[in-house]
Design a protein that fits this description.
With 293 residues, the protein is an all-alpha fold. The chain is built from 13 helices and no strands. Helix 1 packs across helix 13 and helix 7 runs parallel beside helix 13.
Length: 293
């Protein structure tokens, strides 16, 4: 008896359903595009407004139009003839000293927590992380008393060292980044007779360059924009960093908004330049350093 086999029916997408699917996908893509464009506009509008205001004449912030009626460089010429170059120089000094010390401490401490085994290692890195997340106001009174007793107030070098020594989060990030480096490299180096210092300088250090650059940039930006601590520890106008200096344009009875905006534009140039030069290392360092090891 011959057996008859019945073919199972196959469902095929009709041209109408395929067209509906493509239309739905195109709609989703356009919705995402509109959302992204809206976010970009909202994000960059304040920057655009500040730049346009810096070219306005007078001192007022509000006007009938966002664009200036007449463009002028008067605000910039007055700033460069005044104390703005000194403020930027002081901010650069603080940023370079603080970020260099912070990167050095984070590198050495991160290597110790990543490669050595000692009592309290597990909770030590957590304590450093918690301390780094605490607000500066919790210790600023104590630190001010110490600086006053030791005669270290109104000193950019000591203030930069203070900024560089408070980087618990940097140690945690560096430690996690070093954890991603295979321990097989350590064993191979020790077999060849290398010491821990040789392992660190010749094997680990070249591999952590992206994280070093990322840590330096993040620390530099934070210290360069510092305001609160610098206001308390520095009282001489010739030592003011940028954030403290431009605060003088915002007095209680008279506010020079156009000069303030011009100072903000000029002061952001060093940060913008540093970020553009090292953005590749910044992205790579942060993505790997944020992975828990």
């Amino acid at each position: 008896m011959a057996q008859q086999t019945m073919a199972t029916p196959t469902t095929r997408a009709t041209p109408r359903s395929a067209q509906s699917y493509r239309s739905r996908k195109n709609l989703e893509v356009w919705i995402i595009r509109v959302i992204v464009i809206a976010i970009v506009v909202v994000t960059f509008f304040p920057t655009f407004y500040v730049v346009m205001t810096s070219f306005k004449a007078g001192e007022s912030l509000l006007a009938q139009s966002i664009l200036p009626e007449s463009y002028t460089l008067e605000n910039y010429t007055k700033l460069f003839a005044g104390a703005l170059p000194t403020w930027i120089r002081n901010s650069l000094i603080l940023g370079l000293i603080g970020s260099t010390i912070s990167t050095l401490i984070a590198t050495l401490a991160g290597y110790a927590f990543s490669r050595f085994r000692f009592p309290g290692r597990r909770y030590g890195i957590l304590i450093l992380l918690l301390i780094g997340m605490l607000p500066t106001t919790m210790s600023i009174v104590f630190l001010y008393g110490v600086f006053a007793q030791l005669g270290m107030l109104d000193n950019l070098v000591w203030l930069g060292i203070l900024f560089g020594a408070s980087g618990g989060l940097a140690v945690w990030l560096m430690k996690n980044y070093m954890d991603t480096i295979p321990k097989d490299l350590d064993e191979a180096a020790f077999v060849d007779g290398a010491t821990h210092w040789q392992l660190f300088t010749k094997v680990v250090f070249p591999l952590i360059t992206p994280m070093l650059v990322a840590q330096f940039i993040l620390s530099f930006i934070g210290i360069y924009n510092e305001y609160q601590t610098a206001t308390i520890f520095l009282s001489k106008p010739d030592l003011y960093p940028l954030g403290v200096g431009v605060r003088g344009f915002l007095s209680g009875y008279r506010t020079n908004w156009t000069a303030f905006c011009a100072a903000a534009v000029v002061g952001s140039v060093p940060i913008f330049a540093v970020f553009l030069l090292a953005q590749k290392f910044l992205v790579e360092g942060m993505t790997k350093g944020a992975v828990k090891g």
